[in-house]
Amino acid sequence: MKIKDIVIGVVEAPLITPFKTALRTVYYIRNIAIYVHADDGQIGIGEAAPTAVITGETNASITEAINEYIKPAIIGMDVEDISQIMERLDKSIYKNTSAKAAIDMAIYDLLAKRYQAPLYKLLGGYRKELVTDITISVNETAEMVKDSLEAIKRGFQILKIKVGKDPAGDIARILAIRDAVGPTITLRVDANQGWTPKEAVRIIRALEDANANIELVEQPVHYSDIEGMQYVTANTITNILADESVFSPKDAITVIEKRAADLINIKLMKTGGIYQAQKICNIAEANGIQCMIGCMLETKISVSAAAHFAASQKNITMVDLDGPILCVKDPVAGGPIFNGQSISMLDKPGIGFSL
Ligand SMILES: C[C@H](N)C(=O)N[C@@H](CCC(=O)O)C(=O)O
Ligand SMILES: [Mg+2]
C-alpha cells in the first residue's frame, strides 16, 4: 500500500461558547483536514490545529509545510514501512508539529485499515473506554461557577479549570468552584503559563491550605522556564503537570531529569503525531511518570486519533479530549463514540471514519 497523494482541505466547527485561556480566546474552529490517498484506493484522514501561540503554526504555515516539504519527502513510500516514513516526516522540516501530526495520524489510519484493525488495537489495545474532563474557560468567578455547575449537570465528573489570566483572582476563582461543586468532583487547574514561579507556589500552597483538593496543576509557568517549574514542583505538594514545556522525547527527558514536573501532558499537535507520542509515553512510564492525553482546539478527526492512541497505552491515566464536546456539532460522522464524559472505541478499521 503506497502513498499516492496528499490532499489538503479545511474543517470548520463553531464552538458552543468562546474558549478562553491565559494565552488566547477562540470563537470558531477552522483547522486543516488531511486526506492521504493510497494506491489501492484507501484514504487515511488527519487534522492539524493552527495553535500559533503554542506551536507557532497557522493554517497557511501548515499548508506550506505539507505541500512543499512533507509531501515530497514521503510520496511513493509503503505505508507498512512506518518507521522509515516517520523518520522522513520528522526530518522533512524543523518543528511544524501539527502539520506532521496530521500526516502521521492519516498514515496510521491507513496502516490500521491495511490490517483491518481498529487503530487502538494495532497500537497496543490496552482499553476500550476513556473518561475525559471538560474545560471551564477563564472568566469572572460567577461565570466560571455557573459553567462548572452546568458541566456537572451534563454528566462531567472532572473539570479542567483555566486560570492564569488574572493571577490575583485565581485563588478565589478555584475556591468558589470547589465550594459550589462539592468534594466529589475532580478539579484540574491549567494556568497555561500565566503565573510566575513565586506566584504559582503562593497560589498552590493557598489551595493546599484551604483543602481544595486539586488533582493537578498544569503548566503553571512559562514553557521555557524549566527551573521555575522545578521550583514550583519542589515547593508544593500538588502534582504539577508539564504541558507546553514538553513537545519532544528530548523535552520529556529534560523535565524528568530536572524533576520539573510530576506528570506530562502528551498532545499529538505538540509531538508531531502518534509515533513520537509513543516514545514520550514510554520514556515517562520507564521513569514512573504518568501521562495525560490532551488536545488543542481540534474537531473529532484528530481527537479520535488521540483517543485511539490513549486507549492503547496503560501509562495514559488522564484524558483531556474535550475538543469535540466544545463544538456545536461534529464536522464528520464516524469514529469513537463521544457521549458526555465517556469516549468509547469501536471495532471499525483504522480511526473509524468511512471515507
Ligand atoms: C482543549 C483542551 N481542553 C485544552 O485546554 N487544551 C490546551 C489549550 C488548547 C488551545 O489553546 O487550543 C491546554 O493548554 O491544555
Ligand atoms: Mg494545558
TrEMBL record:
Binding positions for substrate per the UniProt entry: R24, T135, K160, C295, L297, D320, D322
Domain Mandelate racemase/muconate lactonizing enzyme C-terminal: 142-239
Keywords: Isomerase, Magnesium, Metal-binding
InterPro entries listed in its UniProt record: Dipeptide_epimerase (IPR034603), Enolase-like_C_sf (IPR036849), Enolase-like_N (IPR029017), Enolase_C-like (IPR029065), Mandelate_racemase_C (IPR013342), Mandelate_racemase_N_dom (IPR013341)
Catalytic residue positions: K162, K267
Cytoplasm listed as a keyword: no
Residue positions binding Mg(2+): D190, E218, D243
Pfam families per record: MR_MLE_C, MR_MLE_N
EC number(s) reported in the record: 5.1.1.-
Cofactor detail note: Binds 1 Mg(2+) ion per subunit.
Family the UniProt entry places it in: Belongs to the mandelate racemase/muconate lactonizing enzyme family.
PANTHER family linked: O-SUCCINYLBENZOATE SYNTHASE, O-SUCCINYLBENZOATE SYNTHASE-RELATED
Name assigned to this protein: Dipeptide epimerase
Source species: Lysinibacillus halotolerans
